[in-house]
Amino acid sequence: MNRHDLVYVSPVAWQALIRARAEFPADPIVQAWVDRGWPLVSRRSDAGEPPGVPLGLPLPPSAGKKRLSFLMRHEDVVAALPAPSVASAARAAPALWEPTLLRLGRLASHNGAEARVFGSLALQFVTGLQYLTDRSDLDFALHVSRDTPLRALAKVIADLEVDAPMRLDGEFIRGGSAVNWRELHAGAREVLVKTPAGVSLLDADEFISGRLPT
Q1: What is the distance between the alpha carbons of residues 136 and 168, in angstroms, rounded to a whole number?
Q2: pLDDT category, 23, cuts 50, 70, 90?
Q3: Whole-angstrom Cα distance, residue 176 to residue 56?
């Protein structure tokens, strides 16, 4: 399971979990989240966290924009799906965002990458709730191939952001390891690599070449 995956859990297990945490039963959105068919979001494990499936539930601004963390049992996971594609999520985006989303999708395709979105746009697409505000970023993940020219692609994304109506906050993902596109565009010699297990520093050329830590 990768970061940003959409994870569907058993409604019975969900209700048992939130009943065990006194702060949640009073929140109707949290109570009904799984019953409405909405997924949780796969997250990185916290240090010292016991075994299980680490999941998050970012609430919309109308509910205080809280980020709730949960740990589910593996047997309570019903399904896990990748984050929505750029093309799919564009249907839930403001009209002003659509040209940028379409261009990002084309840039990814032409460079051997797959473009997906997470964060506010993904949650708005999945739930129909209002997550995006005038200050929202576009959170995206480009799943790259060995042949994707990462530094060149980062330069093109920087050019795209110049005319975009939002900040582009995205990652290049290779083999489950993610690096922010801005670090490669800035020419950093070392980059911060995020994996489901944690974060570490890696030589930028090693990430670009695919020589990832095991």
Answers
A1: 10
A2: confident
A3: 18
Question: pLDDT class for 63, splitting at 50, 70, 90?
Answer: confident
Closest to 169 (Cα-Cα) out of 93, 105, 117, 210: 117
Does the pTM of the predicted model rise above 0.90?
yes
Which residue bears the tokens 């205080």?
64
The residues carrying an active-site annotation are 137, 139
- Which of 113, 99, 98, 91 shows the shortest CA–CA distance to 171? 113
pLDDT more than 90, % of the chain: 77
The span from the CA of 13 to the CA of 80, in Å, is 16
Span 85-104, pLDDT tens digits: 999 999 999 999 999 999 99
Q: Across the strands, what pairs with 194?
A: 178, 199
DSSP line for 54-93: EEEEEPPGGGT--EEEEEE-GGGEEEEEPPPBHHHHGGGS
Residue length of the chain: 214
